[in-house]
Amino acid sequence: MNKIIRKQQLTPETALFEVEAPRIAKRWKPGQFIIVRPNAGSERIPLTLVDGNKERGTITIVVQRIGKTSAVTVATPADGAFHDVVGPLGEPAHITSVGKVTLLAGGVGVAEVLPVAKAFKEAGNYTVVLAGARTDSLRILREELLAVADEVIWATDDGSFGFAGNVVQLLQDVVKASGEKPDLSHVIGPIPMMRAAAKATKDLGIKTYASVNPVMIDGTGMCGGCRVTVRGKVRFACVEGPEFDAHEVDFEELTRRTKAYKKQEVQAYEAHKCALGLQAH
Amino acid sequence: MPPIKRNPKAPRQIPPEVAPNVRVQGGAVEVAGGFTTEQAQVESLRCLNCKDAKCVEACPLHIDIKSFIQHIVLGDVASAFDKISERSPFPGICGRVCQHELFCESACLLGKKLDPVAIGSLERFCSDHHRQFNGKAPVVKANPTGPKIAMVGSGPASLMASFVLAQRGYRVTVFEALHRLGGVLIYGVPPFRLPREILDSEIARLEAMGVKFETDVIVGNSVTLEELFHEEGFEAVFLGTGAGLPFMLNIPGENLIGVYTANEFLTRINLMNANETGADTPVNIGKHTVVIGGGNSAMDAARWSKRLGADTTILFRRGRAELRARAEEIEHAEQEGIKFEFLGAPVALFGDENGWLNEMECIRMKLGEPDSSGRPSPVPIEGSNYRIPVDTVIAAVGQAPNPTLQRTTPQLITNRGKIVVDVNRQTNMDKVFAGGDVVRGGSTVILAMSDGLAAADAIDKALKLQQKEVEIVGAEA
């Protein structure tokens, strides 16, 4: 059991948790992830590490409600605990000193990009975060982003704040307007967004890393469920990733594979919501 | 007391089994029952009580088989259980999953002319009898106070090493990466072969002896080997990290939806209960499943597939004689209506526009010269390709040692992923020992346990020597 130290509801469907996990807090690096089981019997879900505090022995994660298990996780009370937390898993992000780095983040990717952006800045780069949200009220961690990056530019799908459109269009817009492109790009967020970012940055000739999030069970290289084809080769995202060269990832296959349990996920989530509704009455 | 009347010519007793048509409906229900007291009596009276009992030697744990059987002969099952317990706290596990036909029973003298004594079933009988009538396992030694030893992984090798070291007064902590204990016994072996309460109760026996267990700790990632020594005060480490890296088929289409490694398929069901309605971790099973391989994992996956309602075929590139699974599991699979297709191998997999598997191409094989495994090599017959409809393929084609620890401990010497050890199970690193599948590649539960036994002896010896040295140095100062 890992005790929750702090819970902050960022949006109605997204929550930040600071959780007791001294071993992970001590060893984690930006770009790595953990596996969480909110309750006994829950699925093992991979979540990117947002922060870690060695002294306090805590780690920070941000979870968005998507299916049943993530909903249960988000609903865990501030004085509660997660049944299992294991990690840190995966390879850390490739942090190099190249000059100017643009980081594209969408959804909870905005939280997950924080430590990576910070690490790039500490490595001597000029960092620009292009952060996306559906609408103004869903923008998360605005102050935190400003604290770790040289520049933060927001895009909202409905144009209610900042650039009207998604972060990929924003990148294209920024490059066009300034006439210069970054030396390196990093992308983290929903698969369709990463897929579009990979295509756009390839066209623009910007070397780009993507942090992929396939279906995963153990997270230690045992089950092979997280297989991703990278440059024609089968790779296990849990141990060889989660970060790969975005231009070499077979996003079409990744998209298909993440839909393998769509039917069961929808059913489980509906049943879960139904049960919650019954409890409320 | 009347003289004991041995009857070696009595037929070998067959334990009751749940009928095949019932057990394929029953999911996790244990297939093999245990001996009745009467059966155990008849079977133990078949034992010749050899002066030089070869079975004891043939058992990798050297359990005093001859003696425990004689206790059953006398009707003293409690003493029989205690006799086994001197060497192994796991009669419930070994009585169910050990390949007795390759070890003790293969050495049974009676087997030269008649069927060998059913030692495995007798071992299980003692364990079941004890559980039923005595309940609690005997505490061998509580609150150990000796040096701290870390076990990495909670599979058979570590469990056995923990038992021996705790017995000798060492303080043992077992680190497990997953959220439940048992290693391959929990994620690999289905509950219809090894009920979870048996596994849990035999692990609980170690806990009663003072062994500590920490789940959700990946040594290498959550804590390094070096930190275990220098920051957490462990004086020796045993690496029993198993063979958790699945081999892929390396054929076109293996990333289609519906293609599983046996590890993923079995983990979803055995560890995450995907067979149960309402379980949070699901598994996709279609109408036609093909399991590729011929070992225990292949049998386990096929039998689960059948229990989940799919028409199931095991495709194996050699013949029946070359299957590597336990004889009992092969028979059980056959009884349950799993089809076997020998001398065939997959060539390619095909799917629909959404990436769902729907067809596979295979090729016929013939047997050629023996290969490095000592078995006839499978040779493809050119032009013999054929296609079959399929919606689930499970690759059970073997696995390599789990590389997590090796990756973060580059100074550890390995050979093709396997940790290299000397005869004492010592690695190239000081006070670091290893055993089980991480050393052997895919092997058996009982050999992993025997490695744990040998490593525990070596650790005991190494640390006792060290203590002695310290004393001498202290005296001189």
From TrEMBL, chain A:
Protein's name in the database: Sulfide dehydrogenase (Flavoprotein) subunit SudB
CDD domains: DHOD_e_trans_like1
EC number: 1.8.1.-
GO MF: 2 iron, 2 sulfur cluster binding; flavin adenine dinucleotide binding; metal ion binding; oxidoreductase activity
Record NCBIfam families: PRK06222.1
Coiled-coil regions listed in the entry: none
Any one biological process term the GO annotation gives: pyrimidine nucleotide biosynthetic process
Domain FAD-binding FR-type: 1-95
Note on cofactor: Binds 1 FAD per subunit. Binds 1 [2Fe-2S] cluster per subunit.
InterPro entries listed in its UniProt record: Cyt_c3_hydrogenase_gsu, Dihydroorotate_DH_Fe-S-bd, FAD-bd_FR_type, FNR_nucleotide-bd, PyrK_electron_transfer, Riboflavin_synthase-like_b-brl
Pfam families listed in its UniProt record: DHODB_Fe-S_bind
Residues annotated as binding [2Fe-2S] cluster: C223, C226, C238
Needed co-factor(s): FAD; [2Fe-2S] cluster
Binding site for FAD: V62, V63, Q64
Organism domain of life: Bacteria
Matches recorded under Gene3D superfamilies: Nucleotide-binding domain of ferredoxin-NADP reductase (FNR) module, Translation factors
Metal-binding among keywords: yes
UniProt keyword annotations, A-Z: 2Fe-2S, FAD, Flavoprotein, Iron, Iron-sulfur, Metal-binding, Oxidoreductase
Membrane-traversing stretches: none
Automatic annotation (TrEMBL), chain B:
SUPFAM superfamilies xrefs: alpha-helical ferredoxin, Nucleotide-binding domain
Domain FAD/NAD(P)-binding: 148-452
Enzyme Commission number(s) from the entry: 1.8.1.-
Listed InterPro entries: DPD_II, FAD/NAD-bd_sf, FAD/NAD-binding_dom, Helical_ferredxn, SudA-like
A Pfam family matched in the record: Pyr_redox_2
Keywords tagged on the record: Oxidoreductase
Domain of life (superkingdom): Bacteria
Domain Dihydroprymidine dehydrogenase: 29-132
A Gene Ontology molecular function term of the record: oxidoreductase activity
Gene3D superfamilies named among the record's database cross-references: Alpha-helical ferredoxin, FAD/NAD(P)-binding domain, NAD(P)-binding Rossmann-like Domain
Top-rank EC class of the record's enzyme: oxidoreductase
NCBIfam families (alphabetical): gltA
UniProt-listed PANTHER family: GLUTAMATE SYNTHASE [NADPH] SMALL CHAIN (PTHR42783), GLUTAMATE SYNTHASE [NADPH] SMALL CHAIN-RELATED (PTHR42783:SF3)
Protein name: Sulfide dehydrogenase (Flavoprotein) subunit SudA
Organism ancestry: Bacteria, Pseudomonadati, Acidobacteriota, Terriglobia, Terriglobales
